Amino acid sequence: MNFEKMAALGALGVTAGSMLAWLGFVFVTRPVPSGGIDAVTHLALSAATFALFGMIAAAHLYLGLQLRRGADSIRG
Questions:
Q1: What is the pTM of this model?
Q2: Could you tell me if 25 and 54 are in contact, meaning their C-beta atoms sit under 8 angstroms apart?
Q3: Alpha-carbon distance 70 to 49, whole Å?
């Protein structure tokens, strides 16, 4: 199989995985009645961590789409 196609699938897999990891992190850190953080802190934490996870996902999405198009689309 073509290396570029496999690399594109891997990059798109990292995109999906990082978004699932972020959703899992948000779920685990949610406020609960028995204690933990409040809703405002949870919202701020979710937004701040989305910037990190979102940038990783966006970079891998861009790379994966570029690899899927092939070597002709990459310009120096």
A1: 0.81
A2: no
A3: 32
C-alpha count within 13 angstroms, C-beta hemisphere, residue 17? 7
Residue type at 48 in one-letter notation: A
Alpha-carbon Rg for the chain, nearest whole angstrom, is: 17
Phi (first) and psi of residue 14, to 5 degrees? -65, -35
C-alpha count within 13 angstroms, C-beta hemisphere, residue 58? 6
For the stretch 24-46, pLDDT in tens is: 999 999 998 887 789 999 999 99
Burial class (CB in 10 A: 0-12, 13-18, 19+), 15: buried
Place of tokens 């802190």: 41
Longest Cα–Cα distance in the chain: 57
